[in-house]
Design goal:
about 20% strand; Jelly Rolls; five-stranded antiparallel sheet; four-stranded antiparallel sheet; alpha+beta; 9 strands; 10 helices; globular; about 300 residues; Arc Repressor Mutant, subunit A
Length: about 300
């Protein structure tokens, strides 16, 4: 047999990355704004923010993403009530298809959220410095980076953009065309739905002390199925995932500066301030006081 290769076509290619950030901002932060000759997107992981893009003001809520085209002036400001978590990335891409993202606010789904999380995790392993430092203007390679991390970031980012374009192009086509194009398996949908259902259950009971038995009984799921689901979707067991949800909310409450540490521990169902502090340090690497000081230092240096 005589084989002939086919050259794989690139529709969208990322040439360079300028910044990768995961911000945990105070509820009163304000970024005065900038413009630059490369693309940037901002995705709200938690909370909400006000974003000025070009000449328009937008209120972005959790799960929404906005793209700033090259040379578009943009700024971002908290609403004074909610402390937001934001993913911000800037990159170079000359592909004509990028015009799709101009002046759009899109909604990210679970697949896109996973890709964003993978980008952040890779960036932590291959670049020096903190991803929450808004003043870092250059990515510095680590001395011992994870193998092929930079390539994976490029691939994840390209996949993120392609998935968004595909999803919104499909939703804009007639139902008959969309149904023939959509190829997700029934099991993947069922697993994703169950995972989101249990996540919502955990959020509703975030102020309590849940057990595996509680979660299984109230969501009609077996213990082994529950653990397998959470390992595959999040990389953590169900209880560890719930603990991390509590600490994420504690970090937000610290940034909103309405309660002291004892009140936060009590509101989140921790048995004592000491147990809360241990859990906080185990998950974040900092005590609640160290985290508060760190965030305040970044906030005080703004501008």
């Amino acid at each position: 047999m005589s084989y002939r290769s086919i050259h794989l076509e690139d529709i969208l290619t990322i040439h360079e990355v300028y910044s990768i950030h995961y911000f945990e901002y105070m509820c009163d932060f304000s970024f005065p704004g900038e413009s630059h000759d490369f693309w940037e997107f901002l995705c709200v992981d938690k909370g909400e923010v006000n974003v000025f893009a070009g000449k328009k003001l937008h209120i972005l809520k959790r799960g929404e993403i906005i793209f700033h085209k090259p040379n578009e002036f943009h700024n971002v400001k908290s609403n004074g009530l909610i402390a937001p978590n934001l993913v911000v990335m800037s990159f170079a891409c000359n592909s004509p298809v990028m015009t799709f993202f101009e002046e759009k606010i899109l909604k990210v789904g679970e697949p896109e959220r996973l890709l964003l999380a993978q980008i952040i995790q890779e960036a932590k392993q291959i670049f020096e410095g903190r991803l929450d430092n808004p003043y870092q203007e250059e990515l510095i390679r680590s001395e011992n980076p994870r193998f092929a991390g930079e390539q994976l970031i490029r691939l994840y980012l390209e996949q993120l953009l392609i998935q968004l374009i595909r999803r919104y192009m499909i939703s804009a086509t007639p139902p008959s065309t969309a149904s023939s194009t959509l190829t997700k398996s029934v099991k993947q949908k069922a697993d994703g739905t169950l995972f989101l259902q249990i996540q919502e259950y955990m959020e509703k009971h975030i102020h309590e002390s849940l057990t595996i038995e509680n979660i299984c009984k109230n969501n009609s799921v077996g213990r082994s199925q529950l653990q397998k689901l959470f390992r595959s979707k999040s990389g953590y067991g169900a209880i560890e995932f719930f603990s991390r949800m509590k600490i994420d909310l504690a970090k937000q409450m610290i940034r909103e500066d309405q309660y002291n540490f004892t009140q936060i521990a009590d509101r989140l169902g921790f048995s004592s301030i000491h147990y809360f502090s241990r859990q906080f340090k185990q998950i974040t690497g900092m005590t609640p006081s160290e985290y508060a000081s760190s965030i305040k230092a970044l906030s005080d240096n703004q501008g």
